[in-house]
Amino acid sequence: MEIEFIRSLRKRLPHSPQLAVGPGDDAAILHPDGSVVTCDLLCDGTHFSVGTDSALSIGRKTLAVNLSDLAAMAAQPIAAFLAVALPRDEASIAENLLDGMLPLAEQFDVALAGGDTNVWDGRLVVSITLIGRCPHQPLLRSGAKPGDHLLVTGVLGGSRMGKHFDFTPRIAEALYLQKHHTLHAGIDCSDGLSLDAARLAEESGCGVAIDLPAIPLSGAAREMASKDDTLSATDRALGDGEDFELLLAVPADEAKALIAAQPLATPLTKIGTFIEAPGLWQGTENFRPLPVTGYEHRI
Ligand SMILES: [Mg+2]
Fold first, then answer.
1. Angle formed by the axes of helices 55-72 and 171-180, nearest 10°
2. Does domain 13-133 have CATH number 3.40.50.300?
3. CATH of domain 149-289
4. How far apart are the C-alpha atoms of 71 and 69, rounded to whole Å?
5. How much of the chain, in percent, has pLDDT values that exceed 70?
6. Is residue 249 within 8 Å of 240, Cβ to Cβ?
7. Could you give the angle at the alpha carbon of 23 between the alpha carbons of 173 and 36, nearest 5°?
8. Which of 6, 69, 127, 224 is deepest in the core (most CB within 10 A)?
9. What pLDDT is recorded for position 296?
10. Kindly report the CA angle at 64 between 141 and 181, in degrees rounded to 5?
11. Separation CA 84–CA 128 (nearest Å)
12. How many CB atoms lie within 10 A of CB 47?
């Protein structure tokens, strides 16, 4: 539903020469100055729960999800603008949100440059607009080619056990790979491997086949699967979302060299191949359709 909703909104936006990259990627790129801009909004009850999650971790997560979108563009962050709608009787939460953001801002050299706060009768809503710059070529969703390998950083699934709050945005990894290697396309895995891989393929005008046994599964995914057998650990990797790892389309020879060299602190794994036939598939040959199970907002 969310995909259709965004698609129909995108159709209404006039083409602008002020955009080098417009809606449809992890961030926009402005023309001619090259600024990379992304905006994410997190709501109490959807992305976190004020009753159970600390304001510190909510604040950190709000900045971290935006950093992950800049990582998906191979962009270096510069400055963040924070907008908060505070519940009327809990306005003091703003201090703790900031306490959660500041260490991450320092770690990634992000200036907190301004924003806006309001008090209202609703629940907590936090949004950050983050601006960055690409020191190398921007990494887009649209460059994957049939024959490219699909690589992923880290491990997937079960993020609700904690990773959705304490993940490290893959900025350093994206910048390193874009500087030293040939990447055709990339996206951050925020809504589940199956949905984000399908998005990457769709924006590139091709399909992607995922080799399910090759998916690197997190300990949390395995643990959740052992407690609840309605979903396997692989199902969790495909559909849970909020892993905030990078999905990359890499030319086959380059991908083989990268997998052999493992140049990052986190593992890089080949989990699929881009193919001519549009859509999401499973297998390594005689591909079969793979349902998209990632997280979509109900609109
Ligand atoms: Mg993203």
1. 10
2. no
3. 3.90.650.10
4. 5
5. 97
6. no
7. 45
8. 69
9. 63
10. 40
11. 9
12. 18
The pTM score is: 0.95
Protein residues with C-beta less than 5 angstroms from the ion ligand 1: 26, 69, 188, 190
List helix spans (H) across 108-184: 163-166, 171-180
| E runs forming strands in the chain | 19-21, 28-30, 35-43, 76-87, 111-120, 125-133, 149-153, 185-189, 207-210, 245-250, 268-275, 279-282, 288-289
pLDDT per residue as tens digits for the range 138-169: 999 999 999 999 999 999 999 999 999 999 99
CA 95 – ligand 1 centroid, Å: 27
Q: How far is the CA of 140 from the centre of ligand 1 (A)?
A: 11
Cα of 72 to ligand 1 centre, how many Å? Answer: 7
CA separation for the pair 74, 81 (Å, rounded): 20
Distance CA 246, CA 186 (A): 7
Q: Name the residue with tokens 């320092």.
A: 106
Distance from Cα 121 to the centre of ligand 1, integer Å: 30
Of residues 206 and 6, more confidently modeled = 206
From-to residues of CATH 3.30.1330.10 in the chain: 13-133
Give, as one character, the DSSP assignment of residue 121.
S
DSSP β-ladder status, 245-250 and 279-282: unpaired
Contact at 8 Å (CB) between 77 and 70?
yes
Closest CA to 83 of 53, 46, 120: 120
> Is the CB of residue 249 less than 8 Å from the CB of residue 185?
yes
| DSSP bridge partners of 288 | 282
Question: What residue spans in the chain does CATH classification 3.90.650.10 cover?
Answer: 149-289
Structure tokens at 288: 């079969």
C-alpha 141 – ligand 1 centre gap (Å):
10
Q: How far is the CA of 286 from the centre of ligand 1 (A)?
A: 30
